[in-house]
Specification:
Structural class of chain B: alpha/beta
Number of strands of chain B: 13
Order of helices and strands of chain B: HHHHHEEHEHEHEEHEHEHEHEHEHEEH
Strand order of the largest sheet of chain B: 1-3-2-4-5-6-12
CATH architecture of the largest domain in chain B: 3-Layer(aba) Sandwich
Oligomer: heterodimer
CATH class of the largest domain in chain B: Alpha Beta
CATH topology of the largest domain in chain B: Rossmann fold
Largest sheet of chain B: 7 strands, mixed
Number of helices of chain A: 15
Structural class of chain A: mainly alpha
Strand order of the largest sheet of chain A: 1-2
Largest interface: A-B, 65 and 64 residues
Number of domains of chain B: 2
Distance between the termini of chain B: 47 Å
Number of helices of chain B: 15
CATH superfamily of the largest domain in chain B: Response regulator
Shape of chain B: globular
Strand content of chain B: 15-25%
Largest sheet of chain A: 2 strands, antiparallel
Helix content of chain B: 40-55%
Chain lengths: 348, 435
């Protein structure tokens, strides 16, 4: 019995260790910032870091859903930009049209997710290529839409004001992002749907044998992801008041980096929404620190890239394997010691 | 599983309903809804009044032209609105501005909008000349207004029978094939903005070898003008940097200032910054430079980085007025007063109207010119070359002056993204932005 408890404890350590590195990375970043760029940690700095973390975190959570099915999504910039422009175009600056505008933007995002989901889940096409192609189609549609309807127009003033209004120390924007993320966390932790979703991602064949409709879960993942990208785009449009056609461009690789640094398994199944949030915060804060340091853009790219690679090296499967090996090594060492002691006592 | 199916079905049903509701709301204004000529005056510019009074302007042409098909007595009001001065304006630009001041009747407005939407259009004059605007990236309002300026200018020439527009959406390969396709279509003039840079040169040289006049606008200078292609139109970018410095020296006096640029490594930002820095007073401390990609989000991040470490920064120099709205957001989010002097290259009215709303006497904005009209000058230069005028290889350089934003600068009739110096009539701009 004791052995079983010990074994389950060790297993939980191994599993949760994959999410540990992002917290270590944040700790190291905070220490570095304190030492070399303390201005990064001022209130003024956080007034930008927190909103940008929210946009990146929402997009990263969407990417996480897709990664959990073993896929990857490159249509984020297109969906974010299109949803932002649709929201602006439908609202036409009128407050009373805002609910319809946001609903339409999120609806369009869901439709795009549905299309990607069917292509990947049902037709079994490669997710990388599918989402790249879907992203191109969406970008083309965005260009056409922007040209004829809502060219760089502004969101209704009430929406942008609401987004930046403070509430309990944060802004409504940040609370919205937190609420969406919390729903996701609760779904994975406490609902059958969430558990089944994880099991489909971890082992689709076993899930299929258990009677789960793998295809539906994949479609669900892409739709959920697109919804989150759309939400992020709409919020970003509200924050900036007027979206441009380049609004989504910085969100192509950032969410993937956040998901990977957050400890998700790229082969599917395991991921953690809280760690993904933490990784989004890490990346945004790192960017802010590099700007505060006044590094040239070229050097910022290099340092940022190195940080992502470093994060990947010590996160997810690698750290799990490392800890597994360490634990197995310790257990073998103990067994050898026991055998040696036994042998010694028998000999004497 | 059933629950999942149900959720998916509900979601799809909801979004279809929502999309249907949204579709009705998103209907673009139809062509026929284009504002009538009488609805609003032009950008208050054109020399139309004088020209119409003398009755010298036939429907599709201009009288009193010289051997190159031009007149040079541009209306000072047009010059002041676009370039900002009547002094030192090159002759080719005077010719272009004369045409820019001609009246645009309702039929011509509709034709211009049709050409803007359809990308290839017949002007209906039966003219034998085909002109094209080859854009490396046409997907923002500045580029589209520049496109419209080109169309409106082309419509003043009865000799021009066809107008073509291409945009490469920042795809270098497409930019090259666009130029090659225009060569194949046997166009006479290509006005371009070569976002693809030197990669476009072989295609441009090929056009020149085929006898096509290729001219760039807005400092889109590549290769060797005069040999690889005809010429280029530009403002004096170095002078712009010096004027920025002069303004900051005078208005800020002493303290910290920062430079904001566009895309990393772009030549335009690097050029004016290299001229501004040595011209800054020793009392001013340049705390850094940051790239913004000329987007509001990029500007928000860049300005946030600056004010995190230097909340007492007193001045910025930058190109894009509209993008600086991101900078305003950074100050608003941080709860810092906008006690800054801003020197800008462009003049999108949204920032200037926001300045009026902010109503902070310590927030001062100085701007040069949006420069959309440069595509008009490039086209006129091309037409003049077709008629035997030799274009200067050193470029058609437009003078640069700084103007200060005041209570009257904000024009509430203009769309927020509209450029004050643009000569496109407001009704047309409103159609372009979907208002």
């Amino acid at each position: 019995m004791k052995r079983q408890i010990q074994s389950s404890f060790l297993t939980s350590i191994v599993i949760s260790s994959r999410y540990l590195s992002v917290w270590i990375a944040i700790g190291l970043l905070l220490i570095s910032a304190l030492l070399i760029a303390p201005e990064t940690l001022t209130r003024v700095s956080f007034t930008t870091v927190l909103p940008l973390t929210s946009f990146l975190a929402l997009a990263a959570l969407g990417q996480m859903l897709v990664v959990m099915t073993g896929g990857i999504d490159l249509s984020i910039p297109g969906i974010m930009t299109l949803s932002a422009l649709v929201a602006v175009g439908v609202a036409g600056g009128a407050d009373e049209k805002l609910p319809v505008a946001i609903g339409t933007a999120l609806g369009v995002s869901l439709l795009i997710g549905l299309a990607s989901g069917i292509l990947v889940g049902v037709l079994k096409l490669n997710p990388l290529i599918v989402t790249l192609a879907v992203g191109q189609i969406v970008y083309g549609s965005t260009l056409a839409y922007a040209e004829n309807v809502a060219n760089e127009a502004s969101v209704p003033r009430s929406f942008s004001t609401w987004i930046t209004s403070p509430l309990l120390g944060l802004t409504n924007l940040e609370w919205t992002a937190i609420a969406a993320s919390l729903l996701l966390v609760l779904m994975f932790r406490y609902t059958k749907l969430g558990r089944q979703f994880q099991s489909v991602g971890a082992n689709p064949r076993a899930a299929w044998i258990l009677g789960l409709s793998v295809n539906m879960y994949v479609i669900f993942a892409y739709m959920g992801a697109a919804f989150l990208y759309g939400l992020s785009g709409v919020l970003l449009a509200g924050f900036l008041r007027s979206p441009s056609l380049t609004l989504g461009l910085p969100y192509l690789l950032g969410p993937i980096a956040a998901v990977v640094i957050g400890g998700a398994s790229l082969s599917g199944g395991l991921a953690n929404a809280v760690s993904t949030w933490a990784a989004a915060f890490f990346l945004t804060l790192l960017n802010q620190m590099l700007r505060v340091l006044g590094l040239p853009t070229a050097l910022q790219f290099v340092v940022f890239g190195i940080a992502i690679v470093g994060g990947m090296v010590i996160s997810g499967d690698r750290i799990v394997t490392l800890i597994e090996n360490l634990l197995m090594g310790m257990s073998r060492f103990k067994e050898t010691e026991v055998v040696r002691k036994k042998g010694g006592s028998e000999a004497s | 599983m059933k629950r999942l199916l149900l959720i998916n079905a509900l979601i799809v049903f909801t979004l279809v309903l929502t999309a249907c509701g949204g579709a009705a709301a998103t209907e673009a204004p139809a062509m026929t809804e284009a504002p009538a000529m009488t609805e609003a005056p032009m950008t208050e510019a054109p020399a139309a009044t004088e020209a119409m009074a003398t009755g010298v302007i036939p429907e599709t042409g201009v009288e009193g032209l010289d051997e190159f098909g031009e007149r040079y007595d541009a209306d000072p009001a047009v010059l002041t609105q676009s370039i900002g001065t009547t002094e030192g304006v090159p002759q080719i630009a005077m010719a272009a501005m004369y045409r820019a001041g001609l009246p645009v009747d309702e039929a011509r407005q509709e034709l211009a909008i049709k050409c803007w939407r359809e990308k290839i259009c017949d002007t209906g004059t039966g003219g034998e000349i085909t002109v094209a605007l080859a854009d490396g990236f046409g997907e923002n309002l500045w580029r589209q207004v520049t496109h419209m300026e080109f169309i409106l200018q082309a419509l003043t020439y009865p000799e021009i029978g066809k107008i073509i527009y291409t945009t490469a959406a920042l795809d270098t390969q497409k930019a090259i094939s666009d130029v090659r396709s225009l060569i194949a279509q046997d166009v006479d003039i290509i006005v371009g903005f070569p976002d693809a840079g030197e990669a476009l040169l072989p295609a441009v040289r090929e056009a020149t070898e085929r006898g096509i006049v290729y001219i760039t606008h807005s400092y889109g200078k590549i290769g060797e003008p005069g040999r690889d292609y005809s010429s280029f139109v530009a403002e004096d970018v170095c002078k712009l940097g010096e004027l920025f410095a002069e303004t900051l020296n005078e208005e800020v006096g002493s303290g910290k200032v920062a430079f904001l640029g566009g895309t990393p490594g772009n030549a335009l930002s690097a050029y004016w910054q290299s001229c501004e820095e040595p011209a800054l007073s020793p009392e001013l401390e340049l705390v850094g430079r940051a790239d913004t990609n000329w987007t509001r989000e990029g500007t928000l991040q860049a300005v946030s980085g600056f004010i995190s470490s230097n909340p007492d920064i007193k001045g910025y120099s930058y190109e894009a007025a509209d993008s600086f709205l991101g900078g305003v957001r950074a100050y608003e989010s941080a709860g810092l007063p906008l006690d800054i002097v801003l020197t800008l290259r462009t003049d999108e009215v949204g920032l200037f109207c926001e300045w009026k709303d902010i109503n902070n006497p310590n927030f001062k904005i100085f701007y040069a010119s949006g420069g959309n009209y440069q595509s008009r000058i490039a086209l006129t230069a091309g037409m003049m070359q077709l008629k035997g005028h030799e274009l200067p290889a050193e470029g058609v350089i437009i003078p640069t002056v700084m103007r200060q934003v005041d209570e009257n600068t904000c024009n509430p009739d203009m769309p927020a993204e509209g450029s004050l110096s643009s000569l496109v009539p407001i009704p047309i701009v409103k159609v372009m932005v979907g208002q």
